[in-house]
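Below is how a single chain appears once it has passed through the pipeline. First comes the sequence as given, then the structure the pipeline wrote out for it. We keep one example in the README because the format questions we get most often are answered faster by looking than by reading.
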Amino acid sequence: LDEAVATMYPLIKPSFEDLANQIITNQSLENISYPDDSKYTSMILLDAISTSLNKALENEGDTDTGVITP
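Resulting structure:
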């Protein structure tokens, strides 16, 4: 996480680390909990994680990475 972002949004890093630990432990985005003091930050991050995973699943069979190889 960029230092400027961490300075401007101090709840992002600890919220993201907590979410990452829960997701890894549960192997799921279901039943994720977050503290009241970072509820909205966690909800936004969880939505971004979910969107990213869904996009990755959509592109899973896509072998064209846009990289041209000789």
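The helical segments are 3-8, 12-26, 39-58.

See the next section for the split statistics.
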